[in-house]
Amino acid sequence: xxxxxxxxxxxxxxxxxxxxxxxxxxxxxxxxxxxxxxxxxxxxxxxxxxxxxxxxxxxxxxxxxxxxxxxxxxxxxxxxxxxxxxxxxxxxxxxxxxxxxxxxxxxxxxxxxxxxxxxxxxxxxxxxxxxxxxxxxxxxxxxxxxxxxxxxxxxxxxxxxxxxxxxxxxxxxxxxxxxxxxxxxxxxxxxxxxxxxxxxxxxxxxxxxxxxxxxxxxxxxxxxxxxxxxxxxxxxxxxxxxxxxxxxxxxxxxxxxxxxxxxxxxxxxxxxxxxxxxxxxxxxxxxxxxxxxxxxxxxxxxxxxxxxxxxxxxxxxxxxxxxxxxxxxxxxxxxxxxxxxxxxxxxxxxxxxxxxxxxxxxxxxxxxxxxxxxxxxxxxxxxxxxxxxxxxxxxxxxxxxxxxxxxxxxxxxxxxxxxxxxxxxxxxxxxxxxxxxxxxxxxxxxxxxx
Length: 450
Fold this sequence. Notes:
450 residues, two-stranded antiparallel ribbon, DUF1800 family protein
């Protein structure tokens, strides 16, 4: 299968069998699919017990799933329209995750309208307290600054009008769902970036909001802003204007659809030339290690049915220690996607330590990883060629012979004499030596580069 065919297949995930990953989610983290009202009833109004299931379900899909590109786009959009798991919107975080997965590859206009009328975002950005008498600008401002046209593209008058359009949109706490209250809606003419409405009928506020979001999503600054985020995720920290323009064009030509925009990024010449230009974030690094192990779950961590609510397992704990626990960034704009943020001395040391632990595997869940089996390493194989093969498989880069010599020496059992060209894979303590060789691969600069 060629690259374009693979991209097309991945962008139609419903056609990809993902039985194993989804069965794990259903069996152990089923709460991640429930509504806020169901979570309230099951947990006795302790929604904090359910929110880790969203993290565990996401990591399970990343680790065992076949819909790898779709899952990547889900996390991209989760960073773009960001609701932290343990924030004010926590009681609604499970249904917000369902919303993300439903809309991540569809029309951005549909996704954004669903988001701004979701209880999670309305609560997180205080629109539940925004009324005609006391408007709260948080959501009205972020709708412009973060989700659509971006900073410097709007005025304070635009923020005020945007906020008025959003008044009346809140939560029915008895049903734990979205509710529109006309009595809280501020009527009166509004004009925002070319969108205008007489806004004389409070009962028509929902329809006006839908038209307003649709208008914002079709604006060129919105297309460019979303295109740059997509390009920054997949191509470069500072993508070229040509790449951003091509992605924005695909977005606008397809009525704000996200999947064609992602395809435009992945088929642009800049993507093919981007090897080595993106730094992996911690979750990507650890999930690469986990997927390479080819482990199967024996005893699931964090199983909600067993009351093990807050256990994220070995990989989840390592990701948390590295500062990249899914949906847990401390700001409203989601985790940064540039190397500068993730390359501090402290983070690098944490990732080196974490990579060494991750190579062991999640021993309580799946047992210690058997790397000779996972990588088809057997005694007597030429050590240098085996090192070349596994380093390529684990990192995606072709190492020089000089770089491979340390890996080959470990595979050969630290022979002390001879050269890499003559060493063979040891038959003594192979599991331990193979494990150390894998550690060396994953602690190399190559493992940190896409």
